[in-house]
Predict the 3D structure of the following.
Amino acid sequence: MLALRDGVSVAETDDGMALLDEDSGEYFTLNLTAALVLRSLLGGATPAHAAQQLTREYAVDDDSARRDVEELVSALQTAHLLAPKTT
């Protein structure tokens, strides 16, 4: 399951979502589609299910939705916003 690490705050906005890395003071903004995906993933959905939600809510094909989910997760990892995976 995907989770944000401790020290990352989330705020809903009119345009999507803002993430604050409290350690670095950096803000990250997510548009409406990225916010939908992140909410889904944080709620326990698999990346495949999050991609399905994206195709239901927005005019995007399956392949693009899967790529978008993968790119979002990769960007969150690169920014060190995700909690370490536990096994």
Notes: The chain has a mean pLDDT of 95.
